[in-house]
Design a protein that fits this description.
Number of helices: 12
Structural class: mainly alpha
Low-confidence stretches: 64-70, 198-207
Enzyme class: transferase
Pfam families: zf-C3HC4
Shape: globular
Oligomer: single chain
Helix content: 55-70%
EC number: 2.3.2.27
Distance between the termini: 74 Å
Strand order of the largest sheet: 1-2-3
Protein name: RING-type E3 ubiquitin transferase
Keywords: Coiled coil, Metal-binding, Transferase, Ubl conjugation pathway, Zinc, Zinc-finger
Radius of gyration: 25 Å
Length: 341
């Protein structure tokens, strides 16, 4: 079945009503309008050739056609990209908000958990939690594939790379949904529930294939998604070159150890990443201002702790000593500044 049909089926019945979507049909209509504009220019050139107009006039018409759809297109640039950008912002915002609420509900404890379960009356058991996670991941993936398909169609029709440039812009604006830290958290959330000893008589499959693999002690979170799309998330910190410990995801989507992030952002673990300067850059993509929006990956940390207990305990002991050292140094500096030493 073609993606367009799958997407149409999803829009008609499989999705929750009222959720924002990438308007595939509307965007295709915009591209068709542009196609008609291109054909009109081509017909104009052909007519000029047939009536034998001057070469200067013909060159002007050809240049106009080339300028319209070689790299930049006035028909598409004014409607297509702004519309797609607005839809992507709505989709990513909705996905992040709902995933955050779901994971908060799962990780809550004590009185907070009781209050959340009362407020969220639809979440009564682990089966409903898994179903909600499944719906969120399907929602994220199908919109991501729709965006990828329509941008590929744009580039093919215009013989340009503007679609790829827009995708890079989306990544820089942190609205590429597959880079969302909440997608990684939902994958870990599913594996944690699957590995738990909860008596669920009818377990639901959230992904076609989702697993944590270890090759040469290098963990990778892998998932086969819709339309044969595969996502592999490397869980090796690019700073310490070890398994991520107390993992955090920066707003650009890259994952590091919390202490490594603090070191890269030139802040102490006492102050935290929220006080990082906006000029500080991600160690991998070199984007600025990515630390203040960092997300603690609690589900991923639980998964790594349960899957690699020996390595986790070893890192825990080392990190504990380092944290104590940094906290001691921090308060010594505070004391010296207070007494004026």
């Amino acid at each position: 079945m073609k993606f367009a049909k799958k997407y149409e089926e999803y829009m008609q019945g499989d999705r929750e009503k009222g959720l924002p979507l990438v308007g595939l049909k509307k965007l295709k209509k915009m591209l068709k309008a542009c196609r008609r504009e291109i054909e009109a220019h081509e017909n104009r050139i052909q007519e000029e050739r047939e009536i034998g107009e001057s070469s200067d006039s013909l060159e002007i018409v050809e240049n106009k056609c080339n300028n319209n759809c070689s790299g930049h297109c006035p028909v598409c640039d004014g409607t297509f990209f702004p519309s797609l950008l607005q839809e992507m912002l709505a989709v990513v915002g909705c996905f992040n908000e709902r995933a955050k609420k779901l994971l908060e509900l799962h990780l809550a404890s004590g009185f907070k958990k009781y209050v959340l379960w009362i407020v969220n009356k639809s979440h009564r058991n682990h089966g409903s939690l898994i179903q909600e996670g499944k719906n969120l991941v399907t929602y994220a993936i199908i919109n991501s594939v729709a965006m990828r398909k329509i941008l590929k169609k744009y580039d093919k029709m215009h013989h340009s790379t503007q679609g790829q440039a827009f995708k890079a812009k989306a990544q820089s604006l942190h609205i590429e949904i597959l880079q969302s830290p909440w997608l990684c958290e939902l994958m870990a959330f599913y594996i944690n529930l699957r590995n738990s000893k909860v008596n669920n008589k009818a377990p639901m499959e959230l992904f076609g294939d989702c697993s944590l693999t270890l090759e040469d002690d290098k963990p990778t979170l892998s998932c086969c998604l819709f339309e044969s799309l595969r996502v592999d998330i490397n869980l090796t910190c690019s700073i310490c070159l070890d398994m991520v410990f107390d993992a955090v995801s920066l707003s650009c989507g890259h994952i590091f150890c919390y202490m490594c992030c603090c070191s890269a952002a030139s802040v102490t673990i006492v102050d935290g990443l929220k006080v990082a300067a906006l000029k500080e850059k991600c160690p991998l993509c070199r984007r600025q201002g990515v630390y203040r929006g960092a997300v603690h990956l609690d589900e991923l940390n639980i998964l790594l702790r349960e899957s690699c207990p020996d390595e986790w305990e070893k890192r825990h002991q080392v990190e504990r000593l380092e944290r104590m050292r940094q906290v001691k140094e921090h308060w010594q500096l505070q004391y010296r500044a207070f007494v004026g030493i």
